[in-house]
Recover the amino acids of this structure.
């Protein structure tokens, strides 16, 4: 039966859409008599030589990117922002709802002018010449209808020129000789198409190589490339030479003289070199407050006295100083070692302003979790950035909170049973900016490796159900060799979980639903882990790329050696061995998460994700520990299914739309894929449409959950969902509202698993509220 809301929606939605369409058709009435709306652009490429349609399309799309100004945006073919701007009317106030609606939500019309059109034609002509289409011509024609102007830019081009001879500087000075040795790796290749951007990149490459060989004062602007386009056969010869006005210091190789570091507060500068401490490497350290141990500079700085100046060493040293996290400002200055600059030496001065070492912060947090938990938390954080004068970061956190969770329904009344849990605990961590090891494992890259020691202790106390005590300690390393990737190795991690004070009522629940106990069963996990993370977006050179990737891999082991020596086999004996009265877990776990982001424009993108994982319990374990298991469904997973209620496989644990509480359904294997198109609507409001698919499975047969095991027909167990949502980008956080419906339900009989009618059935829709993007 159709609800009142559904009837209203079916009546109101078409009327609203029709109103917007009709309003957009009368954009011209808001324009003055001499104004025309710059509504569309077309680019056409006409070549005097053979050019495929694919090439013509490529150059046509390339030209479109250089047209200015940006036209009024469209959503579903309608200029909604312009429509909002027009209907908002005139306002003379600089604030208020009307001003916000007109200038923040809406956008003014983009008007055409002869100067704009001619400027675009000149820009396109220059761009094509820079790409090797010499002697090209770009003509602009216009078509106006109902004060809407469409501009067509037609480029008449001939053959694209290729590179002929390449001549490098042939002077006898040091810099010319060095440039001559760099030809082998040149970006300019005979026979390649001429491209001005490649020439610029080659000048930058040469400048970078020279700066790493002591030519401190060199600049890419000192390299001039002369062209000869009259050699025939549509080729261009290049003659690279040094600028006549290039100063003499740019031709010389420089070495490092003295290296001095001033460690002083911003308001108490001390530049008296008589107070300096000289390290074994020759660094002069002026640090009257003894803020850092001198050995920190020895392990952090890579640029050393008497070395040839190398730009990479200088940049890496600055990056390493910043990554210590103990300085508010880091500045460096080079100057000639002598006033006459006759010894080709540079003195280097570092000016380091210490940051605030101690920080005490009080936090109040509201929280929601995938397992139907909501609550609040109070925390007191204390942080010391330089605990032992070696750049060590020590942090401690004491917290307490109250959480509520739906755990079951009363079998008689059907009312939801909610449990309240008091949570208290403490977290401590110490991060040391070097590798603490009996071996010399410290790197010499741009990033300082770190040793991390962590410990935490938590108590979950629910008087009506149970008390859960958990503790964890770990020792490991974090390091990265490039800005886009990072490795984390936990050499040893120990997690201990033990329940106590189980009440009779909770015991009755777990006697009926064993999976409820699975979430609090005693656990002891001892072992190493490795985590690798890569993000191409962290590289500034990729900022303008339309395609970027993100990848995470995780490998986790537990008690492998202990199980090997003890010879445990739970599947054979049915008994688990214990340490301190708690069974220890044995497993190998692997997971990989790959994401790709394809930008169509600054306001729209296609995001995709593939997440796959497998956990192999063995020896002393029949299954993965709860905290290491895989789950399906939820706000960041397959959004058409309730959190942790999907699967495993074709197993049906209950209808989440009719039962607010369902026990979590863990699995040993996970396969998941997501495709999401994201676009900007207006202001801080974003919109998305998406589809999610996948499931979780067990490695072995589970008699209590038929259909859960992974088989070669695993694709038949795939769940598929689709939906749409809004995202509110508030800068400091992003609020997300997604509505999804199941299109394929794996537990239904064969032949009836696909059901596209649910796409319009409100009763099957799943509402997801979350903070941040799902991936």
């Amino acid at each position: 039966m159709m609800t009142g809301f559904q009837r209203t929606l079916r009546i109101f939605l078409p009327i609203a859409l029709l109103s917007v369409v009709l309003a957009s058709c009368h954009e011209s009435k808001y324009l003055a008599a001499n104004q025309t709306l710059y509504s569309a652009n077309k680019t056409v490429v006409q070549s005097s030589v053979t050019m495929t349609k694919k090439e013509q399309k490529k150059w046509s799309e390339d030209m479109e990117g250089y047209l200015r100004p940006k036209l009024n945006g469209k959503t579903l073919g309608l200029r909604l922002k312009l429509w909002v701007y027009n209907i908002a009317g005139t306002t003379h106030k600089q604030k208020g709802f009307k001003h916000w609606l007109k200038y923040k939500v809406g956008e003014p019309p983009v008007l055409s002018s002869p100067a704009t059109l001619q400027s675009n034609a000149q820009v396109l002509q220059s761009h094509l010449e820079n790409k090797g289409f010499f002697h090209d011509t770009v003509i602009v024609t216009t078509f106006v209808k109902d004060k809407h102007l469409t501009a067509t830019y037609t480029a008449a081009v001939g053959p694209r020129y290729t590179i002929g001879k390449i001549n490098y500087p042939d002077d006898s000075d040091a810099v010319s000789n060095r440039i001559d040795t760099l030809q082998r790796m040149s970006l300019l290749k005979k026979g390649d198409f001429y491209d001005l951007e490649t020439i610029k990149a080659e000048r930058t490459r040469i400048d970078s190589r020279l700066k790493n060989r002591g030519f401190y004062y060199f600049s890419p602007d000192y390299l001039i490339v002369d062209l000869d386009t009259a050699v025939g056969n549509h080729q261009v010869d290049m003659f690279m030479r040094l600028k006549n006005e290039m100063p003499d210091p740019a031709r010389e190789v420089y070495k490092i003289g003295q290296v001095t570091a001033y460690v002083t507060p911003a308001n108490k500068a001390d530049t008296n070199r008589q107070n300096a401490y000289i390290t074994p490497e020759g660094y002069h350290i002026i640090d009257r407050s003894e803020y850092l141990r001198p050995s920190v500079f020895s392990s952090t700085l890579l640029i050393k006295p008497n070395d040839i100046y190398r730009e990479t060493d200088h940049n890496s040293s600055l990056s390493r100083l910043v990554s210590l996290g103990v300085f508010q400002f880091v500045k460096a200055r080079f100057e000639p070692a002598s006033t006459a600059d006759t010894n080709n030496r540079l003195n280097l001065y570092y000016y380091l302003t210490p940051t605030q070492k101690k920080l005490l912060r009080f936090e109040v947090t509201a929280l929601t979790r995938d397992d139907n938990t909501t609550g609040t938390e109070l925390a007191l954080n204390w942080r010391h950035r330089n605990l032992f004068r070696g750049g060590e970061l020590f942090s401690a956190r004491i917290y307490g909170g109250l959480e509520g969770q739906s755990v079951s329904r009363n079998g008689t009344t059907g009312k939801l049973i909610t449990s309240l849990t008091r949570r208290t605990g403490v977290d401590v961590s110490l991060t040391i900016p070097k590798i603490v090891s009996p071996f010399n494992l410290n790197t010499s890259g741009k990033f300082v490796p770190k040793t991390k020691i962590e410990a935490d202790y938590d108590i979950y106390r629910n008087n009506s159900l149970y008390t859960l005590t958990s503790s964890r300690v770990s020792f490991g390393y974090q390091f990265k060799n490039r800005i886009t990737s990072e490795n984390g190795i936990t050499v040893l991690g120990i997690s201990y979980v033990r329940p106590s004070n189980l009440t009779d009522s909770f015991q009755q629940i777990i006697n009926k639903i064993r999976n409820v106990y699975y979430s609090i069963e005693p656990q002891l996990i001892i072992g190493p882990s490795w985590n690798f993370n890569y993000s191409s977006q962290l590289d500034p050179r990729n900022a303008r790329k339309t395609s970027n990737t993100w990848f995470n891999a995780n490998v986790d082991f537990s008690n492998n050696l202990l199980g090997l020596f003890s010879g445990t086999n739970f599947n054979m004996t049915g008994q688990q061995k214990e340490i301190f009265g708690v069974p220890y877990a044995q497993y190998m776990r692997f997971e990989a998460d790959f994401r790709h982001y394809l930008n169509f424009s600054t306001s729209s993108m296609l995001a995709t994700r593939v997440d796959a994982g497998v956990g192999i319990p063995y020896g002393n374990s029949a299954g993965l520990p709860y905290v290491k298991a895989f789950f399906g469904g939820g706000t960041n997973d397959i959004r058409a299914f309730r959190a942790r209620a999907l699967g495993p496989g074709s197993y049906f644990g209950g209808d989440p739309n009719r039962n607010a509480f369902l026990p979590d359904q863990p699995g040993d294997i996970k396969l998941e894929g997501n495709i999401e198109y994201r676009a900007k609507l207006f202001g801080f409001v974003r919109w998305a449409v998406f589809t999610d698919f996948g499931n979780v499975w067990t490695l072995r047969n589970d008699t209590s959950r038929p259909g859960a095991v992974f088989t070669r027909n695993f694709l038949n167990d795939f769940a598929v969902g689709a939906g749409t949502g809004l995202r509110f980008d508030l800068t400091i956080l992003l609020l997300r509202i997604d509505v999804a419906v199941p299109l394929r339900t794996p537990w239904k009989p064969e032949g009836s698993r696909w059901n596209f009618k649910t796409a319009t059935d409100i009763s099957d829709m799943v509402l997801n509220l979350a903070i941040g993007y799902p991936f």
User: Anything to note?
Assistant: DSSP finds 13 helices and 29 strands in the chain. The CA atoms of residues 218 and 250 lie 5 Å apart. Residues 4-24 form the longest helix (21 residues). The two ends are 37 Å apart (CA to CA).
